Queue: 2 jobs
Job 1
Amino acid sequence: MKNVIEVKELTKHYNGLTAVDHINFEVEEGEVFGFLGPNGAGKTTTVRMLTGVIKPSSGNVCVMGFDLGRDPIRAKEMMGVVPELSNAYTELSAWNNLQFMAELYGVPKRVAVSRAEELLTRFDLYDRKDHKVKTFSKGMKQKLITAMSLMNDPDILFLDEPTSGLDVRSARLIKEMVRELRDACKTIFLTTHYMDEASQLCNRVAIINHGRIAAIDAPEKLKMRIGGLQYVEVSFAAHVDVSDLSAMTGIAGVRASGDKIQLYTDEPDRTIRGLVDYSQSFGLEIVTLNTLTPTLEDVFVKLTEEV
Amino acid sequence: MIDQMRRAYAIAKKDVRIYYLKGAVVIFGILSPAFLFLAFMIGRDLPVDFLIAGLLGMTIFFASTSVAPVIAPTETQTRNLERLAAAPISITTILFGDVLASVFFGIVISLVPIILGMALGVTVTHPFILALGIVLAAFCFSAMGLIFSSAPTSMTSTVMMLSTMIKFPLVFISGIFIPVQELPSWGQALASISPLTYITDLCRYSFQGACHYPVMVDIGALTVFLAVFMAIAIKLHERSLPKRL
C-alpha cells in the first residue's frame, strides 16, 4: 500500500508555545487512521495543518504526492474535510450548500446534481433539501456537513469529531458511512474522543500528547502493549467498601464505576477466587463477574499520563 | 486561474444569497447615504445635476463598502471560514469573491440615483465614462471594504464602527457637498487623497460636462487606489485569517 499522507517533522508554535512538536507519521491508502489525544494535545492544530487551513511553523505534509506547502490547491482537491467546529451556511438550503461545495471543488454541474441527490438520499435529508439549514437539528446539520465533505468524491476524508453530540441513530449512520468508504478504498483520517469508535473503525491509531506522538499502532497491538492492565469487573447486590477489595492480594488498583468495581491485576484467576471467598465470608451475592482485557481507553489513559 | 475565477464567482453568489438583506448592509449601504444626502440637500439652492452627481458618488461609495465588512466577521462567528480555508481556493480567491458581491451591490444600488436624476430631468452626457467610473469605483470601494473587514474579530458592529469612522470624514472632503475647486488649498490637498473625490468628479463630468481633474486622472487615480487597496487587503487578510479560525 502506498502512503497517501506523509507528515515529516511537522511543528507549530503559537506565541512561544509549541502546540505540535516535530511529529512524523504516514497514512496508507485505504486505511482508517485514528488520531486521538486529550484536549489541548495538538489534535486540532495537526488536523488544521494537514488540511491546509493553517501553515506549519516547520516541517511538511504531502497529500497524494502533492506538497501541501508548495501545491495547496492540488492537495486540497484530493480531500474532503469535516472540521470540528465548522458549520454549513445556515441561511442557505441544504441543496445550495452542497452545490456551493461542488463549485468550490470544481465538480461539473451535472455530476454535482446527481451526487447531491445521492448523498441527500443516503443521509436521509432529501425531503428537506430545499429547507434552510437553520431549521435543521444538530444531527441533520452534522449529516449535511458530512455530505458536503463528500461532494468532490475525495480520496482522503478528514473527519474531526464527526459523531460528537449526535444521537445514537445519526452517529451509527456516520459510522456506517465510514465503513462503506473504507470498503471503497477511501482513506479516512478520523479524530475522535470516543475510544470505542476508534477501536471499532480504525486500522491504526496515533495518540498525541503535549504535541508529540506517544504511540502509533493497530488498536489491538496497542492494547497488548499494556498487557499488565487486565482487570476483573465485579458487581455485588449490596454496597461494598472498596478499600476491603484493594487489600486483597495481587491487586494493582481498584476503581469504582457506577455499581461495578474494577480490580486491576496481573493474576485474574487469583482475584476471582479472592472475590468469591469475600462474597461468601460476608454473605454477599455477586450479580456480575467478568475478566476484561484493556480497552483502547485504558491504553489512551496510560499513554497520556506517562508522557 | 480560470478555475479560481469560477470559484470566486461561486463565493460571490453565496454572498449575494446570504448577505444582501442583512440589516447592517441595508443600514450602512442604502439608508445612511440617503439620509446623509437629504440632511445636506434640504434647504439649499443647488443645481439638480450637481446634487445627483454627488448623491451618485456617495451611493456607490456607501453601497460598495457595506457588503465586504459584514462577510468576514459573520463567517468568523458562524465558523464557516474554516470550511473556506480548507477548500482548494486561495485567500485571494475568497477575497475576490467577496469583492464581486460588493461590486454587484454597488452597481445595482447606484442605478437608483441615476434613475432619480433622469426622472428629475438630468441628462447623462457621457454615459460610457459614467459606466466605466461606476464599475471602477465599485471595485475600488469594495476593496476598501475588505481592508475594514480584515480586523480579526467576529463582531460585525466593531468592523462597521471602524469603517464608519473612516467613511464619514471622507464624504466631507471629497467634493460631494462643496465642489473641490471651492475648497481651501489644504482642503483640495485632502480631497486629492480620497478616492471618493475622483468618482464624484467623474460623475460631475458625466452629468454636467465639467470636472476639476482631467478624466484620465480620475480614472487613473481610481485604478491606482483599487490596486493599492486590494494589495493591502490581501496582506492584512493573510495575516488575520489564522487569528479568526
Job 2
Amino acid sequence: MNMLESSVNQAAGAAAGAKPYLQIVDVVKKFGDNTVVDHINLNIARNEIFALLGSSGCGKSTLLRMLAGMETPSSGRIILDGEDITHLAPYERPINMMFQSYALFPHMSVAQNIAFGLKQDGLPRGEIAERVERMLELVQMKKYASRKPFQLSGGQQQRVALARSLAKRPKLLLLDEPLGALDKKLRQQTQLELVNMIEQVGVTCIMVTHDQEEAMTMAGRIGIMSDGQLLQVASPGEIYERPNCRFTAEFIGETNLFGGHVVEDEPDYVRIQSAELPRPVHIGHGITGTLGMPVWLSLRPERVGVSRQQPVGDGNWAAGTVHDIAYLGGFSIFHVRLPTGKVVKASVPATRWREEAAPTWDEPVFVSWADNDAVVLTQ
Amino acid sequence: MNNANNLSVFGKLSLGAGFAFLYLPIVVLVVYSFNASKLVTVWAGFSTHWYGELFRDEAVLSSLWLSLKIAFLASTMSVVLGTIAGLVLARFGPFRGKSLFAGMITAPMVMPEVITGLSMLLLFVQMQQWFGHPAERGVLTIWVGHVTLCMAYVTVVIRARLVEMDRSVEEAAMDLGARPLKIFFLITLPIIAPAIASGFLLAFTLSLDDLVITAFLSGPGSTTLPQLIFSRVRLGLNPEINALATITVLAVAVLVVSANRIMVRAERRRARLAAAAA
C-alpha cells in the first residue's frame, strides 16, 4: 500500500504542479463525421514518462500524431513549455518521435541516420560528430556506426531509432508503440533499458501503447483511452487498484465483475447486493452515491482466497465448487462456480498449499475477500 | 529448385519446343548475317562482308545515332515527368479530377499507337497553321510523341514504388526538421532510385524501337533506325540488316546479363550481411 500511496502523491503533485510543461487543452480531431479524439485535456510535467494506453482505434495514435504535427487538431490547443505549438509544422516543433516501424532511412548508415536531424539544424560538423558519438555510446551501438539499417537486428534498429529521436535534444519525445515490433522476450528486457536511457537523458516522454504491461513497466502515469476519450489518468498502481470505471477495471489485468445495487449506505461503510452473489458485499468505506443506486463491483483474482473452511463473518464470501484449475507454476487460477451460476476467478499462490493439498475439480470450496478488496465502480 | 533432369520426356519436348519458338528466329537471323550472298534467304558461304558494309553505310549509322539521341532525351524527360506524376498520384490524397488525371496519363498505354500518332500529327499541323510552331515535323515532334508514350509506363512504375514505400520514413525526416522539398531529394528520391532506373530503361527501349508514332511525327531528314529498317524491307533486304540486328541482340544480351550479374551479387552481399547481423 505504501507504493500505491506514494505514486498517488506523485501523480497528484504532477497534476497540481505550478505550471505544467505540456498542456493539451480541449483537443478534438474529426475525420469527416467521425470524432477520433474527443475533447482531451491533459497536463504533463517536465521529465515525466507518460503512457497513453488503449486498444487499437481508440484515438491514441491520432493524439500522438497531433503532438508531432502530422495531424492538425480540429479544435483545441497544444502548449509546450509556454509556447502554443498547435499550428506549427512538424519540422518546426521541438518534438521528436520514434516511429513504430522505426522508419530508419534505409540508404543511410547508422551514424548518418542519427546525424540527419542535426544536419537539418545546420550545426557545425564537429558538433554533429560529437553528438552522434555520444548518442551511439548511449544506445551502445558504437561498433555498428557504419552499418546500414537492414544489417541490424530488430532490437538494434530500435536503439538506433531512439538515438536518432534523442539526438536533437527534443523538449518532448514521442514513442509510438516503442517495442511493438520486437518479440516478447526481447520486449521485456528492453522495457527497462529504454526507461533507463530516457531517464539518463532527462527528456519528457509520451508513449502510445496497447500493451498494458509495457505501459505499467515504463510509465510514471498512464492515461486510459477509449473511443477518443481519456477515461482515467493515474499512476500504474492506482489504475490497477482503484479503477474509476468498468472499462478500466476490465481493460487492465483480470477482474471479476459483479453488477449490483447499494442496499446500505453509511458514512463509514456500504453494503452492496448482487444477484450473482449469495450475500451482500461489505465495503469498508463510504462512497459517493445514493441508496439503491446500481453499481459494479470489481474484484481482482489475487484478492480472492480459496479455502475448505467456511469463512467467519456474514459477508464477503461465497460457497461454490471448483469448476476449472489453470496451473501456472508460481500460482494457479481457480475458477469457482457459485450456486448462482457465476464463475469467480481466484489467483492462488502455490505456497498457499503447503499445509494441505490443493482442492481439485468439483470439490466444494469457499471463496472470500477482505472488506476493502472489492472496488465499487459507479460508471 | 527442381533439377532439370527430373523432367519427363513430354516436359523436355515442350521445353525444347518453347525455346525453339522463342529463339529459333533469332538464331536464323544471326546465322544469315554471316551469309556471303546478297540475298538473305540463299546461303552462299560464310563471310563477314556485310558487317564491313554496315559500318560504311552512312544512312544506317546516322539513323542509329538519331534513334539513340531521341531515346535518351525522351526517356530522360519521361522520367522527370513520370516521377512528378507518380508523386502526385501516390502522395497528394484525393483531389478533384484525380481519376481523370490518372486516366489521361496512362491512356497512351492502352490507346492504339496509330490513334496517338495521328492525333498528335493533327495537333502539330494545326499548331503550325495557328502560330507557325513547330515549323516542321522532325526530332522535336518525335521527341514529344515518345515522351507521351513512355511517360505512361514510367508513371506506373514509379507510382507503384511510391505506394509500397513506408511513408513513415518521410514523416520521420519531417519530424527531424527537413522541409518537404528537401525530404524529396534526400529521402524519397534515393529510396525510389531503382524504380527510376528501371523506368528509364523501359522508356529507352520503348522509344528506341517505336515505329508507329515516329512514322506520323517524323519529317524530312529525321529518319530513325526502325523507320530505315522498315523502308529497306520494302525495297528488299540484304544481310546488312541481319548484321545490324545481330549486333543489337549482342548488345542487349551483354547489358541484360551484366545487369543481372550485378543485381545477383548485390543481393548475395545483402543476404550475407543481414545474416551476419542476426
